[in-house]
Amino acid sequence: MKLFLKKFLKIKLKIQYYDYLYYTLNSSIISDYQYDKLCFSLKSFKKKYKIKKSYLEYKNSLIKKNFSYFPEITHKTPMLSLFSGSQIEDFEQYEKKIKKFLNSSQNLEYFCDLKFDGLAISLVYEKGILLYAVTRGDGLVGENVTVNVMTISTIPIVLLNKNVPKFLEVRGEVYMKKKDFLLLNKQNYLKDKKNFSNPRNIAAGSLRHRDPEITRQRNLQFVAYSCNFFESILNLENHDKNMFLLKKWGFPICKYFTICNTIKEVYKFYEKINNNRAKLNYEIDGIVIKINSKALQKKIGFVNKAPKWAFALKFFSYSVITKVIGIKFSIGRTGILTPVAFVKPIIISGVLIRKVSLYNKKKIEQLNLCLGDYVKIYRAGDVIPKIEKVLLEKRLITVQKIIFPNFCPVCKTKLIFIKKDSLIYCPASFFCSAQNEKRLLHFSSKQGVYIPGLGITLIKKLFLKGILKNPVDFFKLNKKSFLNISRIGSILTKKILNSIQKSKKVTLNKFIYSLGIFLVGKVVSQNLSDFFGSLNNFLKAKYKNLRQVEGVGKNIANSILLFLKLKENQKIILDLQNILFISSFFANSFYVKKFSMMWIYDKNFVLSGKFLIFSKKKIFKIIKNNGGNIKYDISKKINFLIIGEKYGNKFKKAKLLKIKILSEKQFIQKIKK
């Protein structure tokens, strides 16, 4: 598959995954800005390359997999997304397209209000009585959450006005106030419960809770932003008149709105709201700009995913000033030393921030950060807190330089510094208690030596009791090991012990990955497995062998050698080798009988000329028996050209392409080493 197509499909799958999280699980791990950038990249690929229509079709099968216990309802009209951008230039481009479509240069009238960061919902009324409430879902079908919606005090159940149409559909946003969010997290903290990350997640979770009383206690709010009439004589010409009518019927509408006739007026409203959004008691992530005329809305129409007559202008994250009051160095699973700055607690976008990761030594040097400095903090993509800059003008003489330790703060092993990546790590692996618990989890994970049933909670309990100290201990577990472990009965014990027995069969790539060697991930583990073919070959690896493996540079090679050099690690690997059946691609094949022949594996060879010592047939056999490929034409994909006497034009082509050339004697010398 062509590289650009791979990239295209990768972006498409990412978008599908984020849509699934947002629409089905009501969760988001990236900001709207990051999501919009992905969508823009997808559009760029469509313009730049001629991609098959089957690849272009946006079919999000993930969204449709709804794991809710709420019944589903089809929307009367689809609940679509909005075109969006983060700069006024994006809106300018949007307006140009609309004017071109309308074939008009006249100013358009826009209705602008706030884009609430909550959960979109549709309310359907029959003869003024709430018939049902449904979430956005996939845009066509959503969840029936009527019972929970009826607990929200700002949503009217009965409309007492004579002019209410027979069928009325009201669209709006369910959200939580900042003060209620902070109060709930404070209560959770006192009850030793997990804190919520942001108000939107609570609103989404509360609205879909099994117990309506929980929804009532969360004090959710509602704001209407549009409506549709069915079987009605009402035919209002503008969007703003529709909103005033909703207010008259008892629906709360956004109190911050304006009518604009120019881009300059739109931007003025955007700036005003952006400068004051921190003062609002609810989260917003931009403004929504709609063509005010209902007739023009109808003329402009829709595309598959969005109405063409509306646009969302998003905000960037804003920063807040606070003070660095402490620095702590933490050790992660792979041994990396990470500096963490503790700051005076501040709230950004409704989230309480107490600490900020500083990543590495280089980052601290770039920021010119000292302990006691005043800093500007923002949430990157409204998710991860980061230090934007140090306020040097506010620096006091009492600040202290940040000094990195030479020894691991946990196990006191001498730390290793990788200058190129500015990384510092502890090489003690399983013998550093800060790493060990996480390494045990990593070892038994799905990508490693998978042991179903041994989850994070159970491994932590066994670790704290001293039953699990290193990976070998997994295979020493018996019925007695689980006797004093809470919530583990005889049936579960039996299942876990059966899982441990089954896990003894493992592939080489998964075994290498399970060891948690610093800088060695899934891809490198697979490449190491493919190259060395067996655990014994891998354990005998030298620096020059490792550097031949795809994706293994200087730092990774040194990290592997350091890990394998430690006697404690050697003992663990030897014990595991005696317990496990470690299979590989070569385990049951004729490939690579001798480790010295590894250089042939997966390489492309071309032969040219007359051979005197070995026949061509014999050379072919040697190459094929050791996993090499025979080719007949010179190209960039060829690794070696083997020449005999009276070689032809292939020699010249190979020289031009800088392909390695071996004489018959050199080839024989290499295979006899």
Describe this structure in words.
By secondary structure, the chain is α+β, with helices and mostly antiparallel strands. It folds into 5 domains: 3-65; 83-314, D-amino Acid Aminotransferase, Chain A, domain 1; 320-418, OB fold (Dihydrolipoamide Acetyltransferase, E2P), CATH 2.40.50.140; 432-583, DNA polymerase, domain 1 (Orthogonal Bundle), CATH 1.10.150; 595-671, BRCT domain (Rossmann fold). The protein is built from 25 helices and 26 strands. The strands form 8 sheets. Strands 2-11-10-3-9 form a 5-stranded mixed sheet, with helices on both faces. Helix 24 links the parallel strand 25 (640-643) and strand 26 (660-663). Helix 1 runs antiparallel to helix 2 (32-48) and helix 17 crosses helix 18 (522-532). The radius of gyration is 32 Å and the shape is globular. The relative contact order is 0.06. Residues 54-67 and 587-593 have low confidence and may be disordered.
Indicate the topology.
Layout: H1 3-24, H2 32-48, H3 53-56, H4 61-64, E1 72-74, E2 83-85, H5 88-102, E3 110-116, E4 119-126, E5 129-135, E6 141-143, H6 146-149, E7 167-175, H7 178-190, H8 199-207, H9 212-217, E8 221-230, H10 239-248, E9 258-260, H11 263-276, E10 284-291, H12 294-300, E11 310-314, E12 320-331, E13 337-348, E14 351-357, H13 361-367, E15 370-371, E16 374-380, E17 384-390, E18 400-401, E19 416-418, E20 423-425, H14 433-443, H15 456-464, H16 490-502, E21 505-507, H17 508-514, H18 522-532, H19 535-539, H20 543-547, H21 554-565, H22 567-579, E22 581-583, E23 604-608, H23 616-625, E24 629-630, E25 640-643, H24 650-656, E26 660-663, H25 664-671
Parallel strand pairs: 2-11, 21-22, 23-24, 23-25, 25-26
Antiparallel strand pairs: 1-6, 3-9, 3-10, 4-5, 4-7, 7-8, 10-11, 12-13, 12-16, 13-14, 15-18, 16-17, 19-20
Helix pairs in contact: 1-2, 17-18
